[in-house]
Structure formats: C-alpha cells, structure tokens
Amino acid sequence: MMLSGEFIAFIGLALVAIMGGVLLLNLTKVVHMVVALVFTFVSIAGIYVLLSAEFLAAVQILIYSGAITIIMLFGIMLTKHNDESEAKGIGWRKILLFLGVLAFGAAVYIGIYDLDFTSETSSLHVKNTEQIGLALYSDYIIPFELTSVVLLVTLVGAIILARKDDNGKEGDKE
C-alpha cells in the first residue's frame, strides 16, 4: 500500500488538531489552553488547504488563530481570576475524557466508512472564493447583514458597559 503525501499530511494535521483539543481540556492554566486552541485552529486551516479551500484556510488563520485568540488573551488578562488549582482526585475527568474521545473516534469512523466521494463531479475547486462570494452576497445576504448588525450591537453594548464601569470606579474614588 503506497501512502500519498496528501494522506500523510492529513493524518499529521488531524493528530495535531485532536491533540490540541485534548490538551485544551486537560491543561489547567488558561494561557496554555489558548495556545493549545491555536494549534487546533492552525491544523484545521491546514486541512482546509488540503481540501482546496484556500479562502477558508486564510479566514481560519486570520479570524480564529489571530483575532479570536488575541481577544481571549486580552479577556483573560483584564479579568480577575484566582489561580486556585482543584485537588487532584481519582481522575474520573481524565477517564471520561478518554472514553469521550474514543466514542467520538468510533462515531467518525462509522460515519465515513462507506462514504464515497467519487460519485459526484462538481466544480468546487474552481474559483472557490468567487463561489463563496456569489453565494454569500446573493443567496445569504439577509443572514449576512443580520449577523453584521448583531455584531455591531454587541460592540456598542460592550462600549456602553465599559464606560459605565469606568464611571463607577471614578465615583468611588471621590
């Protein structure tokens, strides 16, 4: 059996994504969890490249690995939290986590065992960024605009809450 480079790359990226997810659940320091999450995001972007979805890979890197991770780190740094580690017990959490990972792996294996990709011929790999843009701005324009309005309202709400918090602190000092 001859292994192709694409198959080896997929296995490597999938293992990094799975290890990042497992580390995310098992690490105790929040900053280490964010680093594990970055590894997961980058490996998923690599899988997008293997699927010829370069636009999604670029968005994955820019939005998730960049912006979301930085926002999470700023949120961690700006909030008060106690670094109290929970007592190490029997390890039920690790046992349940291992069983959950095994169950997920079995479900994925069962789901893709008889999957046949060769039955359809499609033009997904031809101008995929243009196809995404056309679909987004023609068929899904209303959900796209509603999402942007919700994000704008969220941003305004966060600014209002931050200003109220600053005004309350200034009033306490006087």
TrEMBL record:
Name of the molecule in the record: NADH-quinone oxidoreductase subunit J
Family indicated by similarity: Belongs to the complex I subunit 6 family.
Intracellular or extracellular location(s): Cell membrane
A single Gene Ontology CC term: plasma membrane
Membrane topology label: Multi-pass membrane protein
Its job: NDH-1 shuttles electrons from NADH, via FMN and iron-sulfur (Fe-S) centers, to quinones in the respiratory chain. Couples the redox reaction to proton translocation (for every two electrons transferred, four hydrogen ions are translocated across the cytoplasmic membrane), and thus conserves the redox energy in a proton gradient.
Gene3D superfamilies for this protein: NADH-ubiquinone/plastoquinone oxidoreductase chain 6, subunit NuoJ (1.20.120.1200)
